[in-house]
């Protein structure tokens, strides 16, 4: 129900909404007690509050912040949607904190924090009265505005208003309907931004002038797209902006334009037009009437008989008068100014005009205007009609002849062109007809009529010497009937051939200029070429162009067919055509090569590629193709004449048969058998790679690789070698049965004795078409011819071969390389896993040794420390110190061992004598001595690691020998390496291997790690270490570096 009624008394009805009934009663009681004019009604939910507002008169809504099923904010938003004037107050109680006033600001009139004090309720009552009073004032002020809006909405004009910033403040429904917009969508928008198409127009200029000057403006304006209509605009400026009244006048302007067009037509039409009243006085005469009569210009008011009576034969004049009378008597009395009778009268009259004797067709039409009967008289000059009729008959006969020539399928292009020229000559009355082929300035006669007239097919002229130069220059019809009158007496064509009359049109073939069609005569022509004759020559030009285009197309088609046939025959794919029954119509050379059947054997027979078991598939393909669904690259299998199964890609398309039906099928079959074999090989190689990933040893890798070489790649003579770092050789790992049969015993390959080793050292794949032509092969009498050698990094070599030359294709090579890559990765992984297993075993043993050896000295240190503490005897502290030194030595050795064996990446040439003497200085040698023989070999290695090697050897000799032990370093007898020996107690033969293991020591002073460190460093350098007995019975350690390392150092 509407609230805030202007006419109601000063009492105020407040709707208070609160789920707390007790608190609501307190608010109701206090407000009623403070102001008797305030009536409070209470409700507890938002829904019931909205129902009360709809059914009762309410002046203000007060709501608690929190309700049972809603919030005060939600209620306020719902109220504001229903009534824009109704005040709303959000009440927060004294115990409520954190009410988000900003979040509830939409539609809220005021927020009041209510406390139990009287002053708080007095403030609430005051705010209610103030808000209700203000709302009633706004409602009263809105009544005149609403009344004005209703008035503006009723007007027939489209109205809108803008403020001084050109923002649209109002738009009535009429204007909204005209522009097809909702008023709410445009109000507030800037006029120029909302309707950009009027920017820069006269409309914008007039609006801005009216706004700037304050003067009203009235004008008519056409609005372009998207509006496209005429309007009458009245713009009224004031201090607040501009109000525009717009009335659409499109229909009025169109009527005016129609009247102007009608008048223009009457003023310029060649027909004679009169309007006569019942007395035969002229009410209107157009300029053509005056020109035909020869004056006067103004005939209005004159009697028609006085104007034409002496120019028309008596019989025609009498028939005219009778026609006028009968026309007037038939008028039915209408007064709309239009034709008033059911029938017009048509008569033909002769008239002696100012241009001579003419014949007119005259039509009389009854008119009725303002209750006055009138007659519209229109006369058309038809003097040339008979001549035109005769010309039409000639044109008709010519067209029939042209139709006959163009429809005669038995004519060749040359015959058809000659016949068309003959018809052109007959129709134009000219003697010579020529079709020219023009290229630049070269003019060549393509066809001519009549033959034997001095110009022949193939004759060549310069274009500038022919009348056709004007046709080419203008690309249009050119003609004249008298060469001298046309100023052609100096033209070469006139000088040489005396051609008097000429008409020519340009010819174009496939959109490009070809030449001209022209007719000429040695005699002048009596009459100019009429429009029909020019149109007929142009028609002949179109037909000639069409025939020339057909000839070109036939020639190109023949050439294309020849190329296509050659292409089909040369194509490596099988191409065949079958009819609707499946019989073969085309069988190219590729099909013969692919399937084995000759063309003669299959043409006219049912497709041999469709055995009984493939009939259903063939039918499915046929139906699909003839339904317009081409088959593109479908994989199928077909058998050759000899039973070999091929993998093929099938593509089909429907083509037309000679009878015009699309019921033949062209099929293209591409042999993809090699690709499919490769795919199968790749899948098998993938499975082989998966098997290799779980191989636990290089031996197992070798078995898998040679098996795949035979079963997957068909490479029956295949061998795999593994590189042995200690031997510096490629050791056979596995081979195929055929390889064993061929080689007998597969050899171990070393440096410099085979092509395979060269490939291994270079790290490059080698392919030999015939190994017999290459120096350096392992076996000079080998039966092998072709070989593929693929290094497996530094881990080995994979080789396959054949006893035939040039046996291996690129596909074989690529697949073999893939197998080799998988083998290399598997060998790396297998070796790494073996090393890890060995390392783990060493670490386990190492951990046991560490736990045992560190525990002993630690126990000693702890025990003597306790004794020293109890007794105070310093000698026990010396024992503790000795135990600590023992622990320190163990830790140093353990740190060295913990770093593990590391590859020597950057080796240098090392002087053993110098390095040994430096190492001796770092060892507590007491009374021990060092002797170094002459001519020690130099080696390549890591100087830092070798220094550790000597330090541990020296320390081992001192710890296990007497204090005056002598250590000697000398070259081995064969010069291949060096030895370190002492004159101590030596190592028993049965212990000489285990002393190199971690934690093994036969001395109470040793850590048990020194010699294991020596062995690790030797292995890092690729040396062999042998433990033996010196000449004095002591220990002897012999080191033999790799030959290559020793040679390089030497």
> What Rg is obtained from the alpha carbons, in whole angstroms?
60 Å
CATH H-level superfamily title of the largest domain = GAF domain
Q: What is the CATH C-level name of the largest domain?
A: Alpha Beta
Query: What's the architecture of the largest domain in CATH terms?
Result: 2-Layer Sandwich
Summarize model confidence as the mean pLDDT.
82
How many beta-strand runs? 39
CA(first)-CA(last) distance: 117 Å
Specify the biggest β-sheet: 6 strands, antiparallel
Global geometry: flat
The helix tally amounts to 30
Portion of residues in helices? 40-55%
Per the CATH scheme, the topology name of the largest domain is: Beta-Lactamase
Oligomer classification = single chain
Q: Strand pairing plus helix content: what structural class? A: alpha+beta
Pick out the low-confidence regions. 334-342, 1044-1050
| Proportion of residues in extended strands | 15-25%
Give the number of domains. Answer: 7
Protein name: histidine kinase
InterPro entries: CheY-like_superfamily (IPR011006), GAF (IPR003018), GAF-like_dom_sf (IPR029016), HATPase_C_sf (IPR036890), HATPase_dom (IPR003594), His_kinase_dom (IPR005467), HisK_dim/P_dom (IPR003661), HisK_dim/P_sf (IPR036097)
Domain PAC: 343-394, 632-684
Domain Histidine kinase: 849-1045
What this model shows, in words?
- The protein is α+β, with helices and mostly antiparallel strands and 1050 residues long.
- It folds into 7 domains: 12-146, Response regulator (Rossmann fold), CATH 3.40.50.2300; 155-253, 2-Layer Sandwich (Beta-Lactamase); 288-383, Beta-Lactamase (2-Layer Sandwich); 387-557, 2-Layer Sandwich (Beta-Lactamase); 572-654, PAS domain (Beta-Lactamase, 2-Layer Sandwich); 677-839, Beta-Lactamase (2-Layer Sandwich); 901-1049, Histidine kinase-like ATPase, C-terminal domain (Heat Shock Protein 90, 2-Layer Sandwich).
- It has 30 helices and 39 strands.
- The strands form 8 sheets. Strands 11, 12, 13, 14, 15 and 16 form a 6-stranded antiparallel β-sheet that branches. A 6-stranded antiparallel β-sheet has the order 19-18-17-22-21-20, with helices on both faces. Strands 2-1-3-4-5 form a 5-stranded parallel β-sheet, sandwiched between helices.
- Strand 25 (631-639) and strand 26 (645-655) form a beta hairpin.
- Helix 1 crosses helix 4 (118-154) and helix 2 packs parallel to helix 3 (72-82).
- The longest helix is centred in the C-terminal third of the chain and has 62 residues, at 810-871.
- Mean pLDDT is 82; it is low at 334-342 and 1044-1050.
- Residues 13-129 form the Response regulatory domain.
């Amino acid at each position: 129900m509407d609230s805030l009624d202007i006419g109601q008394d000063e009492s105020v009805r407040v709707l208070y909404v609160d789920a707390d009934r007790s608190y609501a009663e307190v608010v109701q009681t206090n407000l009623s007690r403070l102001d008797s004019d305030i009536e409070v009604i209470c409700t507890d939910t938002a829904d019931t509050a909205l129902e009360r507002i709809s059914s009762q008169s309410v002046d203000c809504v007060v709501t608690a912040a929190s309700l049972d099923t809603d919030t005060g904010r939600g209620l306020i938003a719902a109220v504001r949607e229903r009534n824009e004037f109704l005040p709303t107050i959000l009440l927060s109680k004294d115990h409520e904190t954190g009410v988000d006033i900003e979040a509830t600001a939409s539609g809220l009139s005021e927020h009041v924090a209510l406390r139990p004090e009287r002053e708080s309720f007095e403030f609430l009552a005051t705010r209610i009265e103030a808000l209700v009073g203000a709302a009633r004032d706004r409602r009263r002020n809105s009544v005149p505005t609403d009344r004005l809006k209703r008035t503006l909405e009723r007007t027939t004009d489209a109205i809108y208003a803008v403020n001084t910033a050109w923002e649209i403040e109002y738009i009535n429904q009429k204007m909204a309907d005209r522009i097809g917009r909702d008023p709410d969508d445009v109000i507030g928008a800037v006029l120029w931004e909302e309707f950009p198409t009027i920017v820069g127009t006269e409309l914008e200029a007039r609006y801005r002038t009216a706004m700037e000057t304050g003067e009203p403006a009235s004008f008519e304006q056409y609005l372009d797209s998207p509006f496209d209509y005429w309007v009458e605009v009245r713009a009224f400026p004031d201090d607040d902006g501009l109000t525009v009244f717009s009335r659409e006048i499109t229909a009025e302007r169109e009527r005016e334009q129609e009247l102007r067009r009608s008048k223009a037509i009457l003023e310029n039409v060649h027909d004679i037009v009169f309007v006569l009243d019942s007395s035969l006085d002229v009410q209107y005469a157009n300029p053509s009437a005056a020109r035909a009569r020869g004056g006067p210009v103004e005939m209005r008011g004159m009697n028609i008989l006085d104007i034409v009576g002496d120019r028309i034969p008596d019989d025609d004049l009498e028939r005219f008068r009778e026609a006028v009378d009968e026309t007037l008597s038939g008028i039915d009395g209408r007064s709309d100014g239009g034709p008033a009778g059911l029938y017009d009268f048509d008569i033909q009259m002769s008239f002696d005009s100012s241009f001579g004797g003419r014949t007119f067709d005259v039509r009389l039409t009854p008119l009725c205007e303002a209750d006055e009967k009138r007659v519209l008289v229109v006369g058309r000059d038809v003097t040339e009609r008979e001549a035109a009729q005769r010309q039409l008959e000639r044109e008709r006969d010519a067209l029939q002849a042209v139709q006959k020539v163009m429809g005669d399928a038995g004519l060749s292009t040359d015959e058809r062109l000659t016949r068309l020229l003959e018809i052109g000559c007959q129709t134009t009355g000219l003697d010579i007809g020529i079709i020219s082929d023009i290229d630049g300035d070269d003019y060549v006669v393509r066809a001519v009529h009549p033959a034997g007239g001095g110009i022949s097919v193939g004759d060549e002229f310069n274009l500038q010497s022919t009348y056709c130069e004007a046709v080419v220059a203008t690309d249009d019809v050119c003609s004249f009937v008298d060469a001298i009158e046309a100023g052609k007496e100096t033209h070469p064509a006139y000088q040489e051939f005396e051609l008097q009359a000429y008409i020519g049109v340009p010819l174009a073939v496939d959109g490009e200029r070809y030449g001209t069609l022209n007719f000429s005569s040695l005699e002048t022509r009596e009459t100019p070429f009429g429009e029909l004759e020019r149109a007929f020559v142009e028609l002949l030009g179109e037909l000639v162009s069409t025939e020339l285009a057909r000839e070109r197309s036939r020639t190109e088609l023949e050439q294309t067919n020849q190329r296509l046939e050659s292409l089909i025959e040369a194509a490596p794919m099988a191409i065949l055509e079958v009819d609707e029954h499946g019989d073969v119509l085309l069988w190219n050379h590729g099909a013969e090569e692919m399937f084995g059947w000759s063309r003669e054997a299959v043409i006219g027979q049912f497709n041999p590629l469709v055995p009984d078991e493939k009939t259903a598939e063939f039918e499915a393909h046929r139906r699909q193709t003839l339904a317009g669904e081409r088959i593109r690259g479908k994989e199928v299998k077909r058998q050759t004449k000899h039973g070999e199964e091929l993998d093929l890609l099938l593509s089909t398309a429907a083509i037309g048969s000679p009878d015009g039906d699309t019921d033949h099928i062209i099929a293209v079959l591409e042999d993809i058998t090699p690709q499919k074999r490769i795919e199968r090989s790749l899948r098998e190689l993938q499975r082989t790679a998966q098997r290799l990933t779980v191989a636990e040893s290089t031996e197992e890798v070798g078995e898998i690789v040679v098996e795949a070489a035979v079963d997957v790649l068909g490479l029956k003579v295949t061998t795999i070698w593994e590189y042995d770092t200690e031997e510096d050789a490629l050791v056979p790992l596995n081979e195929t049965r055929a390889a064993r049969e061929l080689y007998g015993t597969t050899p171990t390959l070393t440096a410099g004795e085979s092509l395979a080793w060269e490939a291994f050292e270079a790290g490059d794949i080698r392919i030999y078409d015939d190994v017999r032509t290459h120096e350096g092969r392992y076996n000079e009498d080998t039966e092998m011819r072709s070989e593929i050698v693929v290094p497996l990094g530094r881990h080995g070599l994979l080789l396959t071969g054949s006893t035939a030359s040039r046996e291996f294709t690129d596909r074989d090579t690529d697949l073999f390389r893939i197998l080799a890559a998988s083998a290399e990765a598997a060998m790396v992984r297998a070796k790494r896993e073996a090393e890890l297993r060995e390392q783990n075993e060493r670490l386990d043993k190492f951990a046991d040794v560490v736990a045992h050896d560190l525990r002993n000295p630690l126990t000693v240190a702890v025990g003597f420390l306790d004794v020293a503490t109890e007794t105070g005897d310093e000698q026990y502290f010396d024992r503790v110190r000795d135990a600590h030194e023992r622990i320190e030595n163990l830790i140093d050795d353990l740190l060295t061992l913990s770093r593990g064996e590391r590859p020597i990446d950057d080796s240098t040439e090392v002087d053993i004598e110098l390095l040994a003497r430096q190492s001796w200085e770092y060892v507590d040698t007491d009374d021990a001595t060092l002797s170094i023989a002459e001519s020690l070999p130099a080696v390549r290695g890591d100087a830092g690691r070798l220094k550790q090697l000597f330090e541990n050897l020296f320390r081992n000799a001192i710890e296990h020998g007497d204090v005056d032990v002598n250590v000697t370093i000398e070259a081995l007898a064969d010069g291949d390496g060096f030895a370190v020996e002492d004159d101590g107690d030596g190592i028993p033969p049965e212990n000489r291997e285990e002393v190199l293991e971690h934690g093994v020591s036969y001395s109470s002073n040793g850590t048990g790690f020194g010699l294991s460190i020596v062995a690790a460093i030797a292995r890092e350098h690729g040396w062999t270490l042998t433990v033996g007995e010196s000449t004095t019975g002591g220990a002897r350690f012999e080191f033999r570096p790799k030959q290559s390392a020793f040679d390089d150092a030497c």
